[in-house]
Design a protein that fits this description.
Blueprint (H helix, E strand, L loop, with lengths): L2 E5 L10 H15 L3 E5 L3 E4 L2 E5 L7 H10 L4 H6 L2 H13 L4 E5 L15 E5 L4 H9 L4 H20 L5 E4 L2 H10 L4 E4 L20 E6 L5 H18 L3 E6 L5 H10 L2 E3 L4 H10 L2 E4 L9 H8 L4 E3 L14 E3 L3 H10 L5 H13 L2 H4 L1 H13 L1
Parallel strand pairs: 1-2, 1-5, 5-6, 6-7, 7-8, 9-10, 9-12, 10-11, 12-13, 13-14
Antiparallel strand pairs: 2-3, 3-4
Helix pairs in contact: 5-6, 8-9, 8-12
Length: 382
C-alpha cells in the first residue's frame, strides 16, 4: 500500500468549510482502504487518523494579503497561505518520514515541489476550476475585487504552464476537467467526485404551512458564499419573503452577512454541532444554493441530498456532474423557486428512497476508485 503525504494549509480541524471537509474525507477513505496517509493542515499534523502534532504559526492578515496579491500579481489565497513557517514544518517532516506520493491542495502551491525529499508521485488536488470562480470575481463591480480576480487567473495560468508533465491533476467534477485539460493536455487528469453516506432525516416539517423554512449552510466568511447570500437577497428574497423564512448557518459570518441577517430578519446560526446541524435539516423545508457563479461539486448540495431534503439551486450550484434526484430543483429563476415552494405541500416518500439510491451511487468507495486505481498502478510500475 502507498505512503501518502497530503499538504493542505487551508484545511482545519474541525473542518469549517467544504474544502476542509473534502480533504479530511479523502484522507479518511485512504486510511480506511489500507494506505498510510499523513495530512499536514492549517495548524496540525494528522497521521493515519490521529493528531500527532499541533503548531501555532502567524498567518498574514487580510489587508497584507490583498496588498501582496496586487503587488505580486498573485493569487489571493496563495498570498494568505504561502507561509515560510508552514513550509519549514513540511520540510522538517520530510526529513523524518519517507513517502512515495504527495497530494497538494491547489496548483498555485506548486512551489512546494522545491522542498527536498518530496515524493516521486505528485498529485495536485485542484478541487474546482478556479478560472470559473476568478471570472466571477473579475465581473465584480468592485474594482479591487475585479483586479484580484484578474491577478488570480494570471497566477493560475503561470502555475499550469510550469507544472511538471508527470504530475497528476485530480478534479472533483467532470465539468472542471476541460479548463485544465485544454491548458495541459499532456498531463494525466483524473476525476474523484466527493462522496456521501446517505442518512435521510428521521423527521420533516409540515409542508402544508403557508410560510416555509429555507436554509443556507456553509462557511459564511468566504467570498463565494457571501456573494451567494448577496445574490439571494437581491434576486430571490423580494419574491420569496412572503412565503418563506430564511436561516443562515455557518462559521465565521462576515459583517456583511450579519448586517443582512439583521436587516432582513433572517435567522443567523454561526456555530453548531453535527447534532444541531441534523436538527436544522429536520426542520428545514428547502436547502438553498443561490450561487451566482461557481464550479465543481458543492458539498453543501450533496449533504442536503444525503439527508433527503429538497433543494433549490441555481445552475452554478449544481455543476458537479452528478445525476441529481428529482427533489433537487435546478433553476436560475426566482419565479421557478416560488412555484416549487408553493406547490410542495406534503412530504414525498420518494425523497427517502432517492436519497438512499443517490448515496449508493455516489458513496466514497465508488467515487474514490480513480484515485485508488492510480495508486495501485503506480505501486505496480513505479
Amino acid at each position: 500500500m502507498s505512503r501518502i503525504l497530503y499538504l493542505s494549509p487551508m484545511s482545519t480541524i474541525p473542518p469549517r468549510d467544504g474544502g476542509s471537509r473534502w480533504v479530511h474525507s479523502v484522507v479518511d477513505m485512504l486510511v480506511e482502504a489500507g494506505h498510510s496517509c499523513t495530512l499536514i493542515g492549517h495548524d496540525f499534523v494528522k497521521m493515519d487518523g490521529h493528531i500527532t502534532q499541533r503548531f501555532d504559526i502567524s498567518w498574514r492578515k487580510k489587508p497584507l494579503v490583498i496588498l501582496r496579491a496586487l503587488l505580486q500579481s498573485g493569487h489571493y489565497t496563495e498570498m494568505k497561505y504561502d507561509s515560510v513557517e508552514w513550509r519549514n514544518i513540511v520540510q522538517d517532516h520530510l526529513r523524518n518520514f519517507k513517502y512515495d506520493t504527495v497530494i497538494i491542495s491547489f496548483i498555485w502551491m506548486d512551489k512546494l515541489l522545491g522542498i527536498p525529499n518530496m515524493p516521486s508521485l505528485v498529485i495536485f488536488d485542484t478541487q474546482n476550476s478556479e478560472w470559473k470562480i476568478c471570472k466571477g470575481y473579475q465581473d465584480s463591480k468592485n474594482p479591487l475585487v475585479s483586479r484580484l480576480g484578474r491577478s488570480a487567473a494570471a497566477r493560475l495560468d503561470r502555475s499550469m504552464a510550469e507544472l511538471p508533465e508527470d504530475a497528476v491533476l485530480m478534479h472533483i467534477a467532470e465539468s472542471d476537467v476541460a479548463d485544465h485539460c485544454d491548458r495541459r493536455p499532456d498531463m494525466n487528469h483524473i476525476v474523484v467526485m466527493p462522496g456521501i453516506e446517505a442518512t435521510p432525516r428521521t423527521g420533516s416539517p409540515d409542508y402544508s404551512v403557508s410560510v416555509k423554512e429555507l436554509l443556507f449552510c456553509g462557511n459564511l466568511s468566504n467570498r463565494l458564499n457571501n456573494d451567494a447570500v448577496n445574490y439571494f437577497a437581491s434576486e430571490f428574497w423580494p419574491l420569496l419573503r412572503s412565503v418563506a423564512s430564511f436561516t443562515l448557518a455557518g462559521s465565521n459570518p462576515s459583517r456583511n452577512v450579519q448586517k443582512m441577517a439583521k436587516n432582513f430578519g433572517w435567522t443567523l446560526i454561526p456555530n453548531f454541532s453535527d447534532e444541531e446541524k441534523m436538527e436544522l435539516y429536520n426542520r428545514t423545508h428547502f436547502a438553498v444554493l443561490p450561487l451566482p457563479y461557481g464550479a465543481g461539486s458543492k458539498i453543501k448540495l450533496l449533504e442536503a441530498v444525503s439527508y433527503g431534503v429538497p433543494v433549490l439551486t441555481t445552475h452554478a450550484g449544481a455543476t458537479g456532474g452528478q445525476s441529481l434526484p428529482s427533489f433537487v430543483t435546478v433553476e436560475d429563476s426566482p419565479e421557478q423557486w416560488l412555484h416549487t415552494i408553493m406547490n410542495t405541500v406534503k412530504t414525498d416518500p420518494s425523497w427517502y428512497i432517492d436519497a438512499i439510491s443517490f448515496g449508493n451511487d455516489y458513496n466514497f468507495r465508488n467515487t474514490m476508485k480513480p484515485l485508488f486505481d492510480l495508486l495501485g498502478e503506480y505501486a505496480r510500475t513505479g
